[in-house]
Structures are given as structure tokens and as C-alpha cells.
């Protein structure tokens, strides 16, 4: 079973099982089709990982069998975070396949792909995959390719530690760090990456549980940050780290229990990377705060703007030989991590800087918080293209529009971006301004246009 709806712009994602979008037979077909898309031959290999969702073992095994039916070998990395799979692809120089639905509910599952060296796949490749898989008339035959199980968690940890100077953690006062794994894959990686460091680690929901019994593994939603914010205050912690389900994203909470905007973390790490490599390039996406570009320019670097989504940012990282990249969704990309995103490495950078500077996180990020932001606001509409056209027309003469990713309009002291989601039937609005009242005015005007009764199906 395979539904066309599971094929998204950057990956595969959908409900699993009876009445859902796909199942193990569909995964088996996908495995064979992906081998065809990549042009792999008998004896070639790919590396495969999976998250803790209840459906992941069966689906990943079926995908592996489908790939092996073409004589291709599979290196099974077992349980790993998505950035752990990017590491495996880079470390082994093999195409990678990760079974995860990231922050989606427990009944969903999905697949993220990369080429050898953790290089991004292209939208055309995912289109080819959908066409081949949906046209399949029979299941793959018996697997003949080799199957090798390999635990790479230790190698992943060693590589991350090699990229950050962590010596200051041992020299100053011992830091207390809250880490909320949300019952996701950070519960698997945290003991290895942070367990041996001289910090006091307060773990929340570190047991792997794909039903997510405590809160949904999506730190973009404020209600999923409540427990970590409370724990920071209760334990007098220096900061908190909050990970999503597949642990490739990390949100930071300061010592007051306040959430630090991912754009501020992007600016903070960008400043560090440019101090290490003057004149470097930093990639951001269309909804990243304009403060990041200002910080990069002040440090003598260059900013490149990409569409939202890891495949687009990775491609821009490679094209422009960027040293670092960040998205407002808390994806952070590092050249020395095969240009892939890793929330855990970003967390190590923040910990190292906090220890080295000896100042609270709130002080470290203060100079990067220059604008008032709306946060992301979602609306469901009947006709997204027509809605974008209507909003652009309404702002004619009041700002400069572009269509790199949805609609961005830049005015005097304000900007907004309105774009279709890559994974859900939503329009996502982000507004930023120098003055809070201006931000509110622009936000409310755009929302009124988007949610006009004649066009809106529903809102949330």
C-alpha cells in the first residue's frame, strides 16, 4: 500500500497501517525503487537507520529487503537520530536512508534520504521515486544483497567532540543542563554525547517511546517546551536543550526559563564560525531573522538565502562552500559535518560558549535579538496560490516582494513571509519588525487577507 500523498517536497511522510497511507509492502517497493533511482548495482551498498516509532523496525526491514532484492547490500545502523544517519552516510561514504516522521504523531512514519557523503537528494529524484513506486505491479523478490549490522554511535560521538573545543567545561563552575528528549531519539544519543562531559545533566523523557506519552516531539509548539522551562527554574539550571523526535533539531532555553529564538542561536554560532574562518559564507532560509544577516555582515561574512527545507539548505551550503547554515526551525548545518544539519552539534557549541564566557545564556544572545517577531502562524486555505496573489496585490507599493519561497514582502522596518508548508496543507506566516506595534499591524493585516471567509476552509 502506497498513497501518492506520502511524497513530500523533502521526504516521505504519512500514516502507517490499516486505513493509513502506507505499510510494509509499500516500504519494500520503495526500497527497490530507490535503488533504481540511485542507479545502484549488485554489490553496491547503502546505510539505513531508524527511529523509535513502533512501526520503524518493520518498515525499515521491509525497505532493506526491497533494496537487497536488487543485490544491493545494506548496512543497518539500527536505532539512530537523523543526524546520526547523516554522520553514517558521510563516515561510510554511502547513500543514506532514515526511517522517521520527525515531529509527527506516533501513528505516522516516513523516510529521509541522502546521497553518499550526506549530500542532499534532488526534488527530481523524489519525483522519480514516487513514479516508480506507484507504478509497481508486484512486490520485490527475495533479498540477495548482503546485510551488515553496525553500531556507529561511538564514532558519531567522537566526531562531534572533535569539532568543538569543550575544554572550558572542565575549567569553570559545573554547568547544570536540562535535556528534554521528548521520548525521541535524543534519549539514545544524549548518554553518549553528553554523558561523559563534566556537567550535571537533568534528563526529561529520555526513555524511547514512539507513542510520545508525555508531549508531542515538536519544540516549535510552545506547549511542548513547558516541562523543560519549568525544570530549568526548579533545578536552577544554566540552560535547557529540547530535541524533536528524530533529534536533528535542538531548541535552547536560557537560565530564566525563556525560549531563545533559533535565529539568535544561528547568529551566535555564525559569529563563532566566522571568527574561526573570516570572510566565510552563512546560509539562512527565507524566514530567518534579518538580525542574522546583520551579524554575518558585521563579522565580515556573506549571507546566502535559501528556500526552507534541509534539501535546499544543504544544496546551498555546497554551492556556496558555506561554513555554517541555520533555519528558524532550529536546524543547524555545519560544513565539517558534511554540510548536514545536527542539533546535537549546535548544542555542544552553545555549551562550550557558555562555559568559556562564564555569562548566562540570556546575556550571550542579547545582542542578537534585534527585532520583534510574530512566531510562525498557520492557516489552512482552499487555494494557496490565489491567496498568495491576493496578499501580494494588497501590499503593492508598500514593500518589495519576491517569490523565492512562497511570498516575502520587505517594507520600511518590517518584513513578512507567507509560504505553503512542505509537509502539511497549510500557509505559514512569519512577520518581523523593528517595533512591536508595526509587527502586530502587519501580522493582523496579512492574517485577515489569508483568512478571508470566501477563501478560508479553516484556521488553526
Could you characterize what this model shows?
It is a single chain. This protein is α/β, with parallel strands linked by helices. It folds into four domains: 149 residues, Alpha-D-Glucose-1,6-Bisphosphate, Chain A, domain 3, CATH 3.40.120.10; 87 residues, Alpha-D-Glucose-1,6-Bisphosphate, subunit A, domain 3 (Alpha-D-Glucose-1,6-Bisphosphate, Chain A, domain 3); 95 residues, Alpha-D-Glucose-1,6-Bisphosphate, subunit A, domain 3 (Alpha-D-Glucose-1,6-Bisphosphate, Chain A, domain 3, 3-Layer(aba) Sandwich), CATH 3.40.120.10; 88 residues, Alpha-D-phosphohexomutase, C-terminal domain (TATA-Binding Protein, 2-Layer Sandwich), CATH 3.30.310. The chain has 15 helices and 23 strands. The strands form four sheets. Strands 17, 18, 19, 20, 21, 22 and 23 form a seven-stranded antiparallel β-sheet that branches. Strand 15 and strand 16 form a beta hairpin. The longest helix is centred in the N-terminal third of the chain and has 15 residues. 53% of the residues are buried. One of its GO terms (biological process) is carbohydrate metabolic process. Belongs to the phosphohexose mutase family. Its cofactor is Mg(2+). GO terms for molecular function: intramolecular phosphotransferase activity; metal ion binding.
**CATH class type of the largest domain:** Alpha Beta
CATH homologous superfamily of the largest domain - what is it? Alpha-D-Glucose-1,6-Bisphosphate, subunit A, domain 3
- Give me the CATH architecture of the largest domain, please: 3-Layer(aba) Sandwich
Number of domains: 4
Low-pLDDT parts are 455-460
Radius of gyration, in angstroms, nearest whole number: 22 Å
| Count of DSSP-assigned helices | 15
Please tell me what the overall shape is.
Answer: globular
The percent of residues in helical segments reads 25-40%
The share of residues in extended strands comes to 15-25%
Question: How many individual β-strands?
Answer: 23
Amino acid at each position: 500500500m502506497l498513497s501518492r500523498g506520502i511524497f513530500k517536497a523533502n521526504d516521505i511522510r504519512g500514516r502507517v497501517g490499516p486505513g493509513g497511507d502506507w505499510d510494509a509492502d509499500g516500504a519494500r517497493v520503495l526500497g527497490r525503487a530507490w535503488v533504481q533511482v540511485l542507479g545502484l548495482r549488485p554489490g553496491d551498498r547503502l546505510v539505513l537507520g531508524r527511529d523509535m516509532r513502533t512501526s520503524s523496525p518493520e518498515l525499515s526491514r521491509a525497505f532493506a529487503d526491497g533494496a537487497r532484492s536488487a543485490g544491493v547490500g545494506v548496512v543497518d545502523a539500527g536505532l539512530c537520530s537523523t543526524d546520526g544517519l547523516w554522520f553514517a552516510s558521510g563516515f561510510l561514504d554511502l547513500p543514506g536512508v532514515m526511517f522517521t516522521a520527525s515531529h509527527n504523531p506516533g501513528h505516522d512514519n516516513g523516510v529521509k534520504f541522502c546521497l553518499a557523503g550526506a549530500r542532499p537528494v534532488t526534488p527530481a529524484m523524489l519525483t522519480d521515486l514516487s513514479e516508480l513506486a506507484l507504478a509497481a505491479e508486484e512486490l520485490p523478490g527475495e533479498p540477495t544483497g548482503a546485510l551488515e549490522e553496525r553500531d556507529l554511535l561511538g564514532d558519531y560521538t567522537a566526531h562531534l567532540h572533535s569539532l568543538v573545543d569543550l575544554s572550558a567545561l572542565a575549567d569553570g563552575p559545573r554547568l547544570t543542563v536540562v535535556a528534554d528528549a521528548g521520548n525521541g531519539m535524543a534519549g539514545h544519543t544524549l548518554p553518549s554525547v553528553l554523558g561523559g562531559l563534566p556537567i550535571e545533566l537533568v534528563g526529561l523523557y529520555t526513555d524511547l517511546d514512539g507513542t510520545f506519552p508525555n508531549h508531542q516531539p515538536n519544540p516549535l509548539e510552545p506547549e511542548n517546551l513547558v516541562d523543560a522551562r519549568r525544570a530549568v527554574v526548579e533545578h536552577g539550571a544554566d540552560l535547557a536543550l529540547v530535541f524533536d523526535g528524530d533529534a536533528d533539531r535542538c531548541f535552547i532555553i536560557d537560565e530564566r526559563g525563556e525560549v531563545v529564538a533559533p535565529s539568535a542561536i544561528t547568529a551566535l554560532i555564525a559569529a563563532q564560525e566566522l571568527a574561526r574562518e573570516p570572510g566565510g559564507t552563512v546560509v539562512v532560509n527565507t524566514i530567518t531573522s534579518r538580525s542574522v544577516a546583520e551579524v554575518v555582515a558585521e563579522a565580515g561574512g556573506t549571507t546566502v538565502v535559501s528556500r526552507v527545507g534541509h534539501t535546499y539548505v544543504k544544496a546551498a551550503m555546497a554551492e556556496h562552500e558555506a561554513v555554517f547554515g541555520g533555519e528558524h526551525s532550529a536546524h543547524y548545518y555545519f560544513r565539517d559535518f558534511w554540510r548536514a544539519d545536527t542539533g546535537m552539534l549546535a548544542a555542544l557549541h552553545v555549551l562550550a560558549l557558555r562555559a568559556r564566557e562564564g555569562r548566562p545564556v540570556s546575556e550571550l544572545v542579547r545582542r542578537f535579538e534585534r527585532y520583534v517577531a510574530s512566531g510562525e502562524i498557520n492557516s489552512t486555505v482552499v487555494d494557496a496560490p490565489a491567496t498568495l496573489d491576493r496578499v501580494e496585490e494588497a501590499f503593492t507599493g508598500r514593500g518589495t516582494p519576491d517569490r523565492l519561497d512562497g511570498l516575502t514582502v520587505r517594507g520600511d522596518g518590517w518584513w513578512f513571509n507567507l509560504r505553503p508548508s512542505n509537509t502539511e496543507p497549510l500557509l505559514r506566516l512569519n512577520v518581523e519588525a523593528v517595533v512591536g506595534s508595526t509587527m502586530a499591524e502587519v501580522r493582523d493585516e496579512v492574517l485577515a487577507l489569508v483568512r478571508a471567509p470566501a477563501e478560508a476552509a479553516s484556521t488553526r
